[in-house]
Specification:
By secondary structure, this protein is α/β, with parallel strands linked by helices. The chain has 13 helices and 16 strands. The strands form four sheets. A seven-stranded mixed sheet has the order 10-11-12-13-14-15-16. The longest helix is centred in the C-terminal third of the chain and has 13 residues.
Length: 354
């Protein structure tokens, strides 16, 4: 029972494929997020998402399931471009899971306004990597009219089975979703800093000596879908940009009820932000492979402190970067690289981890 996971190059965002032959013997493609718009196309240059979709189409396959974790531009931008003007996502996508503004407002019996509908026709980014909501043909309307939207709100504690694979949702909680009932304004959460303002010059020991965990306060990130993906005896943890406290509490409840704490791989929350991966989380799970999805061009992410925490909890851990060039050029000193010479760092050229 095997599947392949690919972490595509998506600039400072997330764009993840799970591909495999599951129950029924049919090849399946699951897409989680689409990165910013350049992951699909940039000034007529094909992005990694577009290239992957072209390969899927050439193989006469489809996107069997698309999961949009939340509405930040570095997760939704590439999807919007892929659906616009009958693009490849519009042609290939068969089912969508998405906690849209419309769905959230309906769940809490509130009337949505235009600020809570994600535009597909007039895509605007504010430069900080957060979606600017404008009127136009909405993403919600498009996926609803084309009958590809599974119109059920995803909340912590739910489980779904697709193609014989199990999705166990750790985030968001109803409380985190309720905070989206206000107008969706651009946020500057605590975890956002200049890309030049990093902690890369410090050693792990220096960073850990003064370590105090401070939780991400972003309302958008709090609404992020995070889940365990299981097929056969294999389990991976995909955390979107979810809040650490929600993930920890969800995992504790599952472990106390008898579930395993062992995972083959963890895609770290919020591109390795120190505000989204706590020592409590790392000490709770049993995992040796951690993925960081970012080109380190925005907000000083990943934080080196996050990586220090990983090695403090598990000295045998391996880190995987979808932009391995940032390892030598930015994050680690040569002495640190030598110290971890037995550690895996790189994802393969096409993004495949296994």
């Amino acid at each position: 029972m095997s599947f392949q996971i690919k972490i595509l190059k998506a600039a400072h965002g997330d764009c993840i494929f799970i591909r495999g032959v599951f129950d029924g013997g049919i090849p399946r493609n699951i897409l989680i997020d689409g990165g910013p718009s350049k992951a699909y196309e940039y000034r007529r240059y094909k992005g990694e998402l577009l290239k992957e979709l072209e390969s899927i189409k050439a193989s006469e396959q489809v996107i069997d399931l698309l999961i949009l974790t939340h509405v930040d531009d570095d997760h939704i931008g590439g999807l919007l471009h892929g659906f616009k003007n009958e693009g490849l996502l519009a042609q290939l996508t068969r089912k969508v899971w998405f906690n849209s503004g419309k769905l959230i407002f309906e769940y809490f019996d509130k009337e949505p306004d235009d600020s809570n509908l994600v535009s597909i026709g007039n895509i605007v980014s504010n430069g900080d990597g957060y979606t600017s909501i404008r009127q136009g043909v909405t993403f919600e309307s498009y996926i609803e009219e084309n009958n590809i939207w599974d119109r059920n709100l995803i909340v912590e504690g739910q489980e779904r089975i697709e193609f014989g694979a199990k999705f166990s949702f750790l985030s968001p909680t109803e409380g985190k979703l309720k905070k989206l009932l206000n107008k969706w304004e651009t946020e500057r959460p605590e975890s956002l800093t200049s890309s030049q303002n990093t902690d890369y010059s410090k050693t792990f020991d220096d960073l850990l000596a003064s370590d105090t965990f401070k939780e991400d306060k972003s309302v958008h990130n709090g609404s992020s879908i995070a889940f365990i993906f299981e097929y056969g005896d294999r389990r991976i943890l995909l955390l979107g940009d979810a809040h650490d406290d929600v993930v920890v509490e969800s995992l504790k409840n599952r472990i106390e009820s008898g579930e395993s704490n062992k995972f083959e791989l963890v895609k770290l929350s919020h591109h390795g932000s120190k505000h989204n991966t706590s020592p409590d989380f790392l000490n709770l799970i049993d995992c040796n492979k951690f993925v960081i999805s970012t080109d380190a061009s925005k907000h000083g992410l990943p934080n080196k402190l996050t990586l220090a925490r990983i090695y403090a909890s598990n000295p045998l851990a391996s880190l995987f970067f979808n932009y391995p060039e940032i390892i030598n050029a930015k994050i680690f000193t040569q002495n640190e690289i030598t110290h971890f010479e037995s550690t895996e760092f790189d994802i393969s050229e096409d993004g495949t981890i296994f």
